[in-house]
Amino acid sequence: MPSNSSTAGRLSSTLVFGLAAVILVICIVYAPSEAFKASGQGLAIWWRIVFPALLPFLVLTEIVLASGFARGLGVLLEPFTRRILGLPGLAGYVIPLGLIAGFPAAATASASLYQQGKITSKEAERMAAAAHFGSPMLLTVVIGTGFIGSPALGLLLLGIHWLAGLGAAATLRSSGTSPGSSNRFPSSSKPSENKGILHLVFSEMRRAQEEDGRSFGKLLGDAVSKSVQTLMNIGGYMLIFAVVIHVLTRAWPSFLPQALVSGLLELHLGAYTAAKMALPPSVLAAWISAMLGWGGLCALLQVRSILYPAGIGIRSFILYRMIHAAYACLLALVLWKPLLRWFPGTLPAASGINTASVDPDITSYTPLPTWEQIAGMLQLQSLLLAAILAGSICIALWLRRLRIR
């Protein structure tokens, strides 16, 4: 029987969310035109950035998991991902996916692996947290080129974002289960003297295909429908948060920066609001890096909507986001002056950031990538994913060969 304290907690949370919903409805009714513009902007971000950046990789992930490629890669990389990140070998596919596709692709893959019984709930939670990254399209094309007007700064933000995220995963690797404590692969896949590692990899791939049992046509249809459903869920969150941010910024105290509330709630609008502030480039890079590491409450709820129905918590996810944000902010501040010396004229000077022409009204936010930029970046992201996976396989085989010798 539930205790009085838990019942009171659920009642208070229900009242708070109900009151917030009523206030939001009142604000929308009071200014329907501005609310419509804000929701339209959220729709534009979803359609022009999130949808094309995620859909191919979400479909690819479902096919890769069903084909057994991720499982075979997990057998190959298990000793190294356990030792370095404290994660199962399947992280060898999920983390590159998060690096290239952006959030919440890694959360979707982690939930699928847990539902298939390949990893534990704790491993799925930590894997989704360690692989939660913004996509290269967001950082280089949208933020670097569109918001700030400096592609070089976008590349710097991408490098800092990746390094800080992997550093946070390495820092927190001891918070999960100990290496090797929950190997979910069958005993038949353990290395032996009579079987080479490649034989084990292909055996696991064949076993995964047999367990799935779907034809390619059925698999492709299921992958597309599931991916579109996930993206529709993401789009709903983005539309609601665009309106919430618009309402809050109208009532936000003038002595506090609007980028603070925007960045805490939604990453895209937060980065846009920060880019139009009159900040030194180093401070701007640190601020946006911290927001990228945190990811925004909107992204957190998107991930929760994927993990929670599968029975996976998000406590570790929140801790990862805080550490990722702190590491990214420090890295941006520490690396700024050395990079200015090593690459003079590449990064923007104090007057090199284009913010004067930006309309302060958040509902007029329009710097979205063109379809040509999207196509080019999707091609680059696909090549990067293939290169990272191929490099991981080569390194794993080389290290295993050194161990055998």
What's a concise summary of this model?
The chain has 405 residues and is mainly alpha-helical. It has one domain. The protein is built from 16 helices and no strands.
Return Rg in Å.
22 Å
Number of strands: 0
Alpha-beta classification: mainly alpha
Strand content: under 5%
Arithmetic mean of pLDDT: 77
Low-confidence stretches: 176-183, 185-194, 355-360
Largest sheet: none
What form results from the Cα inertia axes?
Answer: globular
The tally of structural domains comes to: 1
Notes on the protein architecture:
The structure is a single chain. With 405 residues, this protein is mainly α. It has one domain (28-178, 185-348, 359-404). The protein has helices at residues 4-30, 32-67, 69-85, 91-101, 105-115, 121-130, 136-148, 151-171, 197-212, 216-251, 258-265, 267-275, 281-294, 297-307, 315-342, 371-404. α3 (69-85) crosses α4. The radius of gyration is 22 Å and the shape is globular.
Q: Which labels suit this protein?
A:
mainly alpha, 75% helix, 405 residues, globular
Q: What order do the helices and strands come in, and which of them pair?
A:
Blueprint: H1 4-30, H2 32-67, H3 69-85, H4 91-101, H5 105-115, H6 121-130, H7 136-148, H8 151-171, H9 197-212, H10 216-251, H11 258-265, H12 267-275, H13 281-294, H14 297-307, H15 315-342, H16 371-404
